[in-house]
Amino acid sequence: MLEVVLVDDETKALQSLSWELTNFSNEIKVVATFQDPFEALGYLEKHTPDCLFLDIEMPTMDGFQFIQKLINKEFPVVITTAYNQYAIKALKNEAIDYLLKPIDSDDLKETIKKIKKYNLKHNTTERLEKILMNFNSNSLDKKIIFNTDGKLLFLESDEILYAESDGNYSTIFLVDGQKIVLTKKLKEVNEILPEDSFFRIHNSYIINLNKIKEFLKTDGYVVLKSNHKIPVSRQKKSDFLDML
């Protein structure tokens, strides 16, 4: 059974799509519908459907802005619209398909095939990921694991300089100059990093304690061996000195 969520600002469009989907196949169940995209974003932070059917033309937030604001992206997105000029942009925004309203039953049939194929591949990847995670947790030489860009990165603590917050995203800065962007808040990153080597020195920064070169007490900055200058918040200063 495919559980799907629908987002469209028009009541009739929601009702029509819901009817088409549920009457097309007994394998499809519409679990939630939203006219307000902000309510839909809140729902999708806590729930992972098998697919999201998303309208483009919405007054408070268009569909592409909606996709960019999604925190949980562990499901395929199908764009639905009455305007055919959005096809290329839809695919560039990682939608797996594009349906023109009114939706043709043959087009819908092909879309359902794509959804099933996507979810089968995703579920297989997820199982493999769990196996690797379990292997790592039982290993004597444990790595720090980050999930990004469709791959798992296994890193040593010594490879990481610091992490920086960017709202709902975080960037990991490595010793070799690479940057890794994660779809995780800094709080979540902090929970992954080993507390004996890393410290959240500021609301926006976590540093590797082994990479500190200088602490400028008067200015309230830490200088890393890479010469990156990281601010120390007043609230964290006392705890930071205790760690040292």
Structure notes:
The structure is a single chain. By secondary structure, the chain is an alpha/beta fold. The chain has two domains: 2-128, Rossmann fold; 144-243, LytTr DNA-binding domain (OB fold (Dihydrolipoamide Acetyltransferase, E2P)), CATH 2.40.50. 36% of the residues lie in helices and 31% in strands. It contains seven helices and 15 strands. The chain has helices at residues 11-24, 37-46, 63-69, 87-92, 105-138, 186-192, 234-243; strands at 2-7, 28-34, 51-55, 77-81, 97-100, 144-148, 151-155, 160-166, 169-174, 179-182, 198-202, 205-208, 212-216, 221-224, 229-231. A five-stranded parallel β-sheet has the order 2-1-3-4-5. A five-stranded antiparallel β-sheet has the order 10-9-8-12-11. The chain has a three-stranded antiparallel β-sheet with strand order 13-14-15, with no helix packed on it. Strand 4, helix 4 and strand 5 (97-100) form a beta-alpha-beta unit. The N and C termini lie far apart (55 Å). The mean pLDDT is 85.
What is the topology?
Elements: E1 2-7, H1 11-24, E2 28-34, H2 37-46, E3 51-55, H3 63-69, E4 77-81, H4 87-92, E5 97-100, H5 105-138, E6 144-148, E7 151-155, E8 160-166, E9 169-174, E10 179-182, H6 186-192, E11 198-202, E12 205-208, E13 212-216, E14 221-224, E15 229-231, H7 234-243
User: Could you tell me the strand content as a percent range?
Assistant: 25-35%
Number of domains: 2
Helix-strand pattern: EHEHEHEHEHEEEEEHEEEEEH
Rounded Rg: 22 Å
CATH class of the largest domain: Alpha Beta
* Average pLDDT reading: 85
CATH architecture of the largest domain: 3-Layer(aba) Sandwich
**How many DSSP helices?**
7
How is the quaternary structure best described? single chain
Span between termini: 55 Å
Low confidence ranges: none
Approximate helicity band: 25-40%
Largest sheet: 5 strands, parallel
Specify the structural class.
alpha/beta
Shape: elongated
The CATH superfamily label of the largest domain reads: Response regulator
Q: How do the strands line up in the largest sheet?
A: 2-1-3-4-5
Number of E strands: 15
- Quote the CATH topology of the largest domain: Rossmann fold
